[in-house]
Amino acid sequence: MKRLLVPLLLAAALATPTPAHATTPRHVRLDGVDVRLRDGTTQVVTVNHTSGYRARVTWWVRRDGRWQQELRATDGRIGYGGLVPGRHRHQGTGTTPLGTYDLPWAFGMHRQDPAWDLRYRKVRRGDYWVEDNGSAFYNRYRNRAEGGFRWRLPASDPNASERLLDFPQQYEWSIVTSFNLRQVRHRGAGIFLHVNGSGATAGCVSAPRWFIRALMFRLDPARRPVIGIAR
């Protein structure tokens, strides 16, 4: 009986179904954008540069092993400086980083809607996105009352941080990306997916208001959403 036990256990292990995310490929090409998937990713935003600072922004969902397009905006925007590989980006150049990044949380001008799954922070007076290269809070959301960065620097200073209330239209809803999460100084801070302004961005990706609002009701951290940006 003992001789049969090991083969039987092995057979049972091989017959056990693997988790659905285990079969997720590491890469997928959607609308011409090569996206690096995380384990369990079933939600993707693609950004395909079309001309100038314009881009096509598309929302994809994986169901039953197939990627399906659910939303598309042809009036997306990128940075005024164009596109550059993420590792070569430099702060203040107005460039949008190429590559794939997580979409972990969001902030904005409204109160949190109970239907949103993303972690969310409502912008309040004194809230900044820190772009001060001398701060331990570089590329982090912080209120000036908490200190730790030079919030008084004028906008013309290369270490000036972004006062979020100054952008009520663009940051009505703003989805944070994981670009430069490791805080490499001078690489850049505050790369978001947000609502369109009047023209190009300073390095973020933007899309029409209806598109970003729709994403707020669809993005689910449990589904490991990412954004893929291509030329």
What report would you give on this structure?
With 231 residues, the protein is mainly beta. It has one domain. It has helices at 2-15, 209-216, and strands spanning 27-30, 33-36, 43-51, 54-63, 66-77, 83-85, 96-102, 105-108, 119-122, 127-129, 141-143, 162-163, 173-176, 192-195, 205-207, 226-230. The strands form 4 sheets. It has a 6-stranded mixed β-sheet with strand order 5-4-3-16-7-6, with no helix packed on it. Strands 9-8-13-14-15 form a 5-stranded mixed β-sheet, covered by helices on one side. A 3-stranded antiparallel β-sheet has the order 11-10-12, with no helix packed on it. Mean pLDDT is 92; it is low at 1-22.
List the helices and strands and how they pair.
Elements: H1 2-15, E1 27-30, E2 33-36, E3 43-51, E4 54-63, E5 66-77, E6 83-85, E7 96-102, E8 105-108, E9 119-122, E10 127-129, E11 141-143, E12 162-163, E13 173-176, E14 192-195, E15 205-207, H2 209-216, E16 226-230
Parallel strand pairs: 3-16, 6-7, 8-9, 14-15
Antiparallel strand pairs: 1-2, 3-4, 4-5, 7-16, 8-13, 10-11, 10-12, 13-14
Summed up:
Strand 4 and strand 5 (66-77) form a beta hairpin. The protein has two helices and 16 strands. It has one domain.
